[in-house]
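RETRY 2/3 - previous attempt timed out on the joint model. Re-submitting the same 224-residue input unchanged.
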Amino acid sequence: NAGVTQTPKFRVLKTGQSMTLLCAQDMNHEYMYWYRQDPGMGLRLIHYSVGEGTTAKGEVPDGYNVSRLKKQNFLLGLESAAPSQTSVYFCASRDLTGANSPLHFGNGTRLTVT
Amino acid sequence: GQNIDQPTEMTATEGAIVQINCTYQTSGFNGLFWYQQHAGEAPTFLSYNVLDGLEEKGRFSSFLSRSKGYSYLLLKELQMKDSASYLCAVRDGGNNRLAFGKGNQVVVIP
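RETRY 2/3 succeeded.
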């Protein structure tokens, strides 16, 4: 049982390049989330999805797009990377059993934009 | 919106007890979570409180006071492996989103 899997684990981009981060979960969870974590800032929500085919903006959505074409996958896209997007990106998922259902996190993608 | 405040760092001795505080302000409250995050790793779930009072889970306990917008995580019999960042997160009742505090780094020394 893999849980939440993120690919790639590391990536270096040049300013202006694009890339897609992939998140896959095998727990049949409805909700999926993308967070970024920066020193001194804590985890901040970028976008999230409450089910297949749905997406919504979080706290810091600018410069990112997402898609949830399949229930198990949640993709985060950077159309034109900027140095300010250097960060560690975490994907998470949770089920609908109740408000107490915790987030399950992937191991993160460490992105550097030069 | 939500505003979550945690102290940034503390050092404690192996075998000791440490209390990590979290205060929050939110327009709607639907539960408070504590996560543990070791350096370079993903956060992992520790505890959940939605009603006032103390929840105990082995060496870890978490307390909530909704009227004061306050929670603490108590770590007993500290072990070296408890050196980590501890994240407080509040679920907004309106949109069910989870907002995280900046985390409290606990360093356990022999």
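DSSP finds no helices and eleven strands in chain A. Closing ticket.
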